[in-house]
Amino acid sequence: MMSMTGSAARARPYTWLCFDADGVLFDYDRAETRALSEALAAAGHRLDPELQALYRRINRELWSAWEQGRVRVEDLKTLRFERFLQQAGIPCRVEAFAERYLETLSRGCDLWCGCRETLPLLRERYHLAVLTNGLSRVQRPRLAGAGLLPWFDLLIISEEIGAAKPARAFFDAAWERMGRPAPERVLIIGDSWEADIAGAAACGWRTCWFNPAGAPPPTPEPVPRIVRSWEELRAWLVDGIRAA
């Protein structure tokens, strides 16, 4: 259990570390590929690069529309599959395809290397939270199946609170459940620049861009902390604090 007193408290700049789930805790690309492959196989088709690119484009567009409040989460659940199957020319019941995909995705517990070993060390030093734009039936089973839930004090899922990152309402809801800590004592580690980094920065939180691919920052302005692996996170937030 995390405790923070005396010089140890002064050495730690944050009291809360908030992690995005997909792309930070989980290697989402692997889980998505498996789910799409199994859903297509059930429909009598094989996944190929063109189909994967088509699905990712449609999925990305609709998730972005949801984050901007232009699509309801109820519609998102099936609309992305409806558009994908229609544009791919695959005759299949949308509901059956969606169910197979989501059921498979909910079992996708592929963690980034170093995540499982580092979380207990972080838990000794900070309060930990998961802040995710996702569906409950997918995120809760994945976190439980990966054995991660015991390490987190708080789990915020956009579908459950009716707001999605980067909306201020999402971050305000998380901040309230954290007990209203000083914003500068809250660090979010996320892979989405718009949803995680820009959204949290607008609330005064500190930010860390999890960027395994080494993509260039989407802004010419000075960027927040950037890490490419859980090893770098550990060196910074565990070993660096220990050394201080």
First CA to last CA: what distance? 21 Å
**Which fold does the CATH topology of the largest domain refer to?**
Rossmann fold
Average pLDDT taken over every residue = 91
**Which sequence of strands runs across the widest sheet?**
3-2-1-4-5-6
- Largest β-sheet summary: 6 strands, parallel
Structure report:
The protein has 244 residues and is of the alpha/beta class. It has 2 domains: 6-26 and 110-243, 3-Layer(aba) Sandwich (Rossmann fold), CATH 3.40.50; 29-105, DNA polymerase, domain 1 (Orthogonal Bundle), CATH 1.10.150. Helix content is 51%, strand content 11%. It contains 11 helices and 6 strands. The protein has helices at residues 6-11, 28-42, 49-67, 73-88, 94-105, 115-123, 136-145, 158-161, 168-178, 193-201, 230-243; strands at residues 16-19, 127-132, 154-157, 186-190, 206-210, 225-227. The protein has a 6-stranded parallel beta sheet, with helices on both faces. Helix 10 (193-201) links the parallel strand 4 and strand 5 (206-210). Helix 4 crosses helix 5.
Note the topology.
Blueprint: H1 6-11, E1 16-19, H2 28-42, H3 49-67, H4 73-88, H5 94-105, H6 115-123, E2 127-132, H7 136-145, E3 154-157, H8 158-161, H9 168-178, E4 186-190, H10 193-201, E5 206-210, E6 225-227, H11 230-243
Parallel strand pairs: 1-2, 1-4, 2-3, 4-5, 5-6
Helix pairs in contact: 2-5, 3-4, 4-5, 6-11
